[in-house]
Amino acid sequence: MITWNKKVPQALVSRLYEQTASGIFDDELLDEVGCALYARCKSVVSATCGFEKKVLICPNPMCEAEIKLVGGYFSCRCGFNASWDEFKKSYKGRQLHAANALPIFEKFIADFPKAKTYGDKITCVDVLIHSFHIKMSYYRTLDDYDVDNEGVELNRPAGAN
User: How far is CA 118 from the centre of its chain?
Assistant: First the structure.
């Protein structure tokens, strides 16, 4: 079974921004938001690459190996296995496809772990969130498990992920 990291609650992000704007630099809250965004971004990148490139990042946090789809299955040396159909069903309705916003998610994954100070970390979070508002719309590709919107090209902000 594939489990994906959940969306980060907007209220949590709002609280971080409100406190920071008020001059309250809560390292614990920033780490909570940053780590939750990091985990969600990793899920988005993995689901997108699994669908588009047929390469899945192993969902086992102790492994995280790249797994190629072979014979209709993702099989990892750590013991994780999922069929193509199981994989597709696992992300249905979870807003995990990055579409043309993939570089934004990848940049956050690369930059956030390197950030050490409050300023560096809040900048990473800020760049991620504000990047979605600048020009990145999400063009959803339709697949067999998204029949509710068959034949419709949807466009929405990538920040919904």
Answer: 22
pTM for this entry: 0.82
Count Cβ atoms within 10 A of the Cβ of residue 129 and give its class: 0-12 exposed, 13-18 middle, 19 or more buried.
middle
DSSP state of 159: G
Is residue 44 domain-resident?
yes
How open is the CA angle 137-138-144, to the nearest 5 degrees? 160
More confident call, 91 vs 146 = 91
Q: Is residue 64 part of a domain?
A: yes
Domain assignment present for 47: yes
Instruction: Encode pLDDT of 52-74 as tens digits.
Output: 999 999 988 899 899 999 999 99
Angle CA(137)–CA(13)–CA(31) in degrees, nearest 5? Answer: 115
- The model's confidence at residue 158, banded by pLDDT at 50, 70 and 90, is low
Number of domains within the chain = 1
Residue 3 covered by a domain: no
* Domain range for 112: 10-160
